[in-house]
Amino acid sequence: MSREINNKIINLNDTHLEIPSIxxxxxxxxxxxxxxxxxxxxxxxxxxxxxxxxxLPKGYSVTGRLDSELPAPTSEYASMFQAHDRLVEKTxxxxxxxxxxxxxxxxxxxxxxxxxxxxxDASGKTVGTFFHGRKAEHLSLRLYTTGDKAESLLLTxxxxxxxxxxxxIIFYLRSHLCRKEIAMKLNRSxxxxxxxxxxxxxxxxxxxxxxxxxxxxxxxxxxYVPEQLLTHHHxxxx
Length: 238
What we know:
Helix content is 31%, strand content 22%. By secondary structure, the chain is an alpha+beta fold. The strands form two sheets. Strands 4-3-7-6-5-8 form a six-stranded antiparallel beta sheet. Strand 1 and strand 2 (8-11) form a beta hairpin.
């Protein structure tokens, strides 16, 4: 049995991943949302806390379904979640996002950090992703959203093309800061920032900031936000 999505064929039989019993017990006892998806982003398992977070109907099972099929506000962000899953599988490392959506019974806008890590089989081969959500207790949502607009933001590097400092500079360039302002933010000289920007342009194959922003968006990297900035009053721009 298969289903076509995003011009790709998804095998639904992959939902029968072997999950150790002790791990299921661990997840069931967690009061934080978590679950497992296969390499096609189809749910294999989700605990009660996750079902409650999405305010799914009583008795509803996510197993065998895609995010886009769930009766929840997050369904419209399915393509972003899939891209996040593929990034985890490709890098083999934890990748985190900041999810701001209507959550819970009250369906009010709330913020959760979601960490995703590779889920291996008995031989160590990655066969899916494990996700775990934790409430962002100290975020002021007005600093990261516009009104009641939901967001899905990536907190870990979407690519190793740029260094940590270069990603920070790219974020500030996308936030319309000039070289002098960026230099002040990073406690560096304006000349140093100018040289790094030139290196960024060279890596991206562009010649100006407008082209760089277009390049980042085309790659789907525009959702990246440096995690260390979340403790400061920086507004997340669309």
